[in-house]
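agent> step 3/5: call structure_predict on target 'Alpha-2,8-sialyltransferase 8B-like' (Branchiostoma floridae).
agent> reason: downstream docking stage needs a structural representation; sequence fetched in step 2, passing through unchanged.
tool.input:
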Amino acid sequence: MEFAVRKRLLRPVSLFSVSFLTMVFVVLYSLQGNYKKRMIFPVSQHKRASRSVWHNVTAADFIRNMTRKRFLTCRHFLPYSYPATKSSEFRTEKQCTRRSPVGHYRTCAIVGNGGILLSSGCGMKIDSNEFVIRVAHSPIESFEKDVGQKVNLTVVNDVFLGKLQKKGIDPNWLRSRNNSIISYVLNHNNNLKTLNDVVRKSHLNITITNSKYPTRALVRKFWNDTRKTFLEVPTAGLITYTLASTFCDVITLYGFYPFGQDWNNRTLLYHYYQSGLAKIFFDKNKLHDYPSEHKILKSLHNLKALKMVTDVCT
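tool.output (status=ok):
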């Protein structure tokens, strides 16, 4: 470490050039699935430099710069309005940013609903983040030890909105989202109005947001172009991570593990709160390409651009 710092002081210009080119090559090569050996980027002196040993600021910033070129955070998290607000009302990024309730955050936890979370004891680690994002309609009550109880943003999908129209909404679940944002990032769904009406009647402090763009198609194109894969229907988890990378400095993923057994050969449930076995579901599911998505996130984990927790928290 001392040698690296000394060398940087002696030859700052040349080292920066080499480091930057190396970083570009390694990140792109890794995203294409060809990077095999572990490589450690030079330590950045960025003002947001992480205290976490695992986090590589240079790699995370590189990914963020890539996603920000395709995704403007505020346009995917605008307050819901009925009738819909015209996109032309937000002609500048500044106007758009003023309307969005989503800001920029130092540390973010993205909590999926994978069975790997059950008995993980990760609740306190999750809650220690500045901003906690939960994917889909996963419950918190009775699972606080494993999934925490803090929530700032919940990303819901068509399944959730469809059930809302037919069966209504669990009042306990809704109360657990008080003082937070519930977001539907897939442009527009007719049931959003129903959700918005339910929230208003509840008198809870919940903001409903939705996207002004076809987010799923944009995410699919982004990763297919970057990684040269053939994703057709990205999961809510991958969509959430992609958008979060534009406004979070340090991202940790929990519950992102599409396999039937963990590292200790423990049989896993599909969801931490349901009884169905993960292996049976993943074998039958043809809508999402879970293995390819896992490879994408795993490659970013190996580069330390994000952290994917797949074990118990200590």
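agent> step 4/5: record observation. Residues 2-309 form a domain with the sialyltransferase cstii, chain A fold (CATH 3.90.1480.20).
agent> proceeding.
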